[in-house]
Specification:
Elements lengths: L2 H11 L15 H34 L2 H11 L9 H23 L5 H45 L2 H6 L3 H12 L2 H86 L8 E9 L12 H6 L10 E9 L11 E9 L2 H7 L2 H11 L1
Helix pairs in contact: 1-2, 2-5, 2-8, 3-4, 3-8, 4-8, 5-8
């Protein structure tokens, strides 16, 4: 996350004036309100930073020149080998898999650790806000109750004798002494004192509850939220890297397949091939890891074209399809392996001619 967010986090949760006291303390509802506001800002900053990083990661993957050209190559009508359509489909499904991964990681609460951490942090902050409201209510109730009790004391004092003789100082003093000894007034003042004590106790308990929630916010929820945001972005980038590597592998096989098909149809295809038989040339990995994107094979995809890594076994397979009588449904359009070749250095030098590669590049352009 951004340094500004980290600094704000430290400022909110740490007391720089006392190295032995790293807890953020509050003395009342006003302090708690400031804390809630700062925490809301911090959560919003983490969210906005996460969204910006996710957008950059998505754009980096979707706007890659390779991704743009891969689909165009396979879809180009100038390519004579229609079999390359399979490579387009694989790449498209890979893109769909990545988009689904990003959507699950950023939009689905049941799958997203980030959203789960966000929900937990917001729930804790909501509980702190409820405590703050209870503190405000407690203070208002105390003021209202004491105000009513003092009104009763004033009314008790305002007897006809006091109203008539209030201008006489001596009489007023005598009346004051009588009032002070009045059981009703003494009882009301005792109630006021007890009310203050009760609300003071409630206020202290609410502060303790707020402190516990703030510690959970500091020690668990914020850090979990930040960590989940960072790990989610990292997972998206890793997944995008794996998808790009898979697509590079697919593109590499597409080039080989195009050149192999051109070579086989020109030099290897039987001169007297049955007119009812059609042939299809494919470039495949012997491991079969080319057929469908699987993130568990990320290491294989990343090492496929890296220098110094052994090239996986590639084979050129020619499939034959015999068009039989339509009434024989079980054998109709049945595809079989006609022949296969290992794509070794000698075959690569034979089929990957400059002319074939230039023809492929021209079709791409």
């Amino acid at each position: 996350m951004a340094c500004a967010i980290q600094r704000k986090y430290n400022r909110v949760h740490n007391n720089s004036n006392n190295s032995n006291n790293n807890n953020k303390t509050v003395n009342g509802a006003k302090d708690l309100k400031r804390y809630v506001t700062e925490m809301m800002t911090l959560l919003a900053n983490i969210q906005s930073e996460f969204e910006a990083d996710a957008t950059r990661a998505s754009s980096k993957f979707n706007d890659t020149k390779f991704n743009d050209t891969a689909k165009r190559i396979c879809s180009n009508p100038n390519l004579k080998d229609a079999n390359l359509k399979e490579h387009e489909v694989r790449n498209e499904m890979c893109r769909v898999a990545h988009n689904d991964f990003v959507y699950s990681a950023t939009k689905l609460p049941q799958c997203s650790a980030f959203l789960q951490a966000k929900e937990a942090a917001e729930e804790c902050l909501g509980q702190i806000e409820q405590v703050r409201k209870m503190m405000v209510t407690n203070k208002q109730q105390k003021k209202t109750t004491i105000r009513k009790l003092r009104t009763l004391i004033v009314r008790e004092r305002q007897t006809p004798a006091i109203i008539t003789q209030h201008l006489m100082k001596s009489v007023a003093l005598e009346e004051e002494e009588e009032e002070e000894s009045s059981p009703t007034i003494k009882g009301l003042r005792a109630v006021i004192a007890q009310t203050k004590q009760n609300h003071r106790t409630v206020g202290k308990n609410l502060l303790k509850q707020a402190t516990v929630l703030m510690e959970a916010m500091r020690n668990q929820h914020i850090l979990t939220y930040k960590t989940a945001a960072e790990s989610t972005i990292g997972a998206i980038l890793n997944h995008a890297s794996a998808c790009s590597a898979f697509m590079r592998q697919t593109m590499h096989l597409a080039v080989i397949q195009f050149c192999a098909s051109r070579w086989w149809n020109e030099f290897e295809k039987p001169a007297k091939a049955p007119t009812t038989t059609t042939y299809r040339v494919k470039a495949e990995l012997a491991s079969g890891l080319h057929a469908k994107f699987d993130v568990s094979h990320t290491g294989h995809y990343l090492s496929f074209l890296e220098e110094g890594c052994p090239v996986p076994d590639i084979q050129i397979v020619v499939y034959a399809t015999d068009a039989t009588n339509a009434t024989n449904a079980t054998n109709a359009n049945h595809e079989r392996v006609y022949c296969s070749y290992m794509f070794d250095d000698l075959l690569a030098e034979t089929i990957l001619t400059d002319e074939a590669v230039e023809e492929f590049e021209e079709a791409r352009r």
